[in-house]
């Protein structure tokens, strides 16, 4: 699971399959996967400020 932080302070939690984001990746692949989800309309929100793996 990933935590998506938006520039306006909102937060979303998103599960990304390992086929999209390898377990070892915590940065660029996750960010790109979230951007793609947002572009397809699967994730609402404004400008993405950051994506981190939930702990």
3D architecture notes:
This protein starts with a strand and ends with a strand. With 55 residues, the protein is of the alpha+beta class. Helix content is 22%, strand content 27%. Strand 1 and strand 2 (11-14) form a beta hairpin. It has one helix at residues 28-39, and strands at residues 2-6, 11-14, 48-53.
Apparent shape? globular
Query: What is the share of helical residues?
Result: 10-25%
Distance between the termini: 8 Å
Rounded Rg: 10 Å
Strand content: 25-35%
Total beta strand runs: 3
Summarize this entry quickly.
The protein has 55 residues and is α+β, with helices and mostly antiparallel strands.
Describe the SSE topology.
Layout: E1 2-6, E2 11-14, H1 28-39, E3 48-53
Antiparallel strand pairs: 1-2, 1-3
Keywords:
55 residues, alpha+beta, 1 helix, 3 strands
